[in-house]
Design brief:
This protein has 545 residues and is mostly beta strands. 7% of the residues lie in helices and 44% in strands. The chain is built from 4 helices and 41 strands. Strands 26, 31, 32, 33, 35, 36, 37, 39 and 40 form a 9-stranded antiparallel beta sheet that branches. It has a 5-stranded mixed beta sheet with strand order 9-10-14-13-12, with no helix packed on it. Strand 15 (215-221) and strand 16 (226-231) form a beta hairpin. The chain is flat, with a radius of gyration of 30 Å.
Amino acid sequence: MSLHSTTYRFFAAVAAIILSASCIRNDIPYPVIELAVTAIEADGTAGACRIDPIKHTVVIPLDERTDIRNVKITRIAFTEGAHYPAEFECAASGKEPLVLDLRAPKYFTLGLYQDYDWTIEAEQNIERYFTVKGQIGATEFDLGNRTATAWIRDDYDLRNVTVESLKLGPKEISEMSPSQEELSDFSSVRFVDVVFHGRSEQWNLYVLPRELTVEILDVMEGVNVAWITVAGVSDADTGLRYRRSGQQEEWSEAPAEWIHSNGGNISVTLRHLQPETTYEIMAYADDNISDVQTFTTSEKVIVPNCDFEQWHMRSSTWYPYPEGGVPFWGSGNDGSSIAGVNVSLPCEDDLRPGTNGKISAHLVSANANVVGIKKFAAGNIYTGYYAQTIGANGLVDFGRPFTVRPAAFRVWVKYRCGTVNSAPATNRSGKELGEPDEGIVYVALGDWDPSIFGGSETSPIRIDTRDISTFFSPQKDGIIGYGEKLFTSSCDDWTLFEVPIEYRSARKPTHIIIVCTSSRLGDYFVGSDESEMWVDDFELLYDLD
């Protein structure tokens, strides 16, 4: 064997050993630790910041007076061990605010064993309005081009227009030049400079003539109420007349207190209508009359077991419906009872004054030990059902079929507010230990698609306590109407609450969600085991006084 051959074999062997050692090191897997923004606070917000751990985004809702170019992040926290950009250190340590220009999103990366890209963005809504005397319909705003256009009666002099309201920048801190009082000649476009935060924006204001007309834009019917929008004329005698169809009745005039004006548009809330009845409506502005339209009111629907009188127990678990009956209400008992705890109970010894019933619903927040893991369980009762327990987590399906529009809800409540004493290590709820807990009763109507929201045809929204993105929020898509009563302190005596339901769309609902809970942030496993809520005689209201 030659020396060259021996030398070659030696180095080949060394290379193989090095390569083998290298392969062994690379084959050891790194742990997968998902990195997230776990908390964030900022000055000048118009509500709580929203963290979405699935989309890796943070949304900061800014008050309209806040300078979006100089947003002060006063506190930010990340998953323990995460490496973050050095510029975040000041806010992460609490030493001083981090100032960000959020006209465009702020992109950054969190790293440890893997990298995760995150985004911080601002959401800021500035209320703007521009109305003139004799205006027809609503003003059209083009924010991108900073243009506002109002239409006026064609018999008005464009050189002598009365501007009735004008706001183009943030409230209290904006100056306009020329001022509202100096604007009258709109024979051509008027330019208005708006100064705030030391900067100036130029707006283009148009007033254009249009033939005087009145038109019914939208009709949204309920059971005893109908909500109607009319494009009218601001300085005309504008109103709405109605009558039952086919009865040859005289027209009834909608009273002034049922009418709300918004520039040239008016909204009318007809009341005291008959269920399942067809009505004719006609709008007018001076001598101009709209086409006659018809709508049919809905059937009144009573929520099953809304007095909470019907319960049964099966395998040590309480259920809020009669044995063998069709469930409309669900609770967290299916999950908590694994640990021997019922968080929703029938109560016979604490009833609201004047009731004819014998039972109220008692919702008790508690700490439960599920499969050896301590978990917080909120006392709750809701329309839907408990789908499944996965380890120490739960799947809950919200909603029941419902196609009518109630005007409000009414419920008797008594509430004992505890101090938050339960929260996971990765608390993403925004509420800290030691703060007061919160209870809530809310109603949401919507047309949620179960293929999008993960539920079923009967209960379309699936809440997965492992996935914050599935948690219910009144800002989410699919909601048509919503109303809530929030409890931030104790309500020691039985009290009757009446809450209006605000509708955001004329779409017809397909389902209703009703939730009563003694700990609003129970989905996050955050709350107090001292919090209790008693609820009784829940009622949907279909008429307004």
